[in-house]
Predict the 3D structure of the following.
Amino acid sequence: MAKWTILAEGCKGCGLCVEACPKKILCLDSGTINHKGHTPARMMDESRCTGCGFCATMCPDCVITISR
């Protein structure tokens, strides 16, 4: 099973990872604001993550990691 992690304080909320996810299990967390004033990405259902890494590849800030 893949483990998805994000450095939420570094996320600028661009949404590229959300669009790249083939399972559509990422979203921008509108209930959270990081120190930069952005809404970071959040995993809605980690049990459905296949670990494909598309989200990490698309992240321009390199704040997403996938580990197995």
In short: The chain has one domain: 3-67. The domain at 3-67 is CATH 3.30.70.20 (Alpha-Beta Plaits). The first strand starts at residue 3 and ends at 6. The chain has a mean pLDDT of 96.
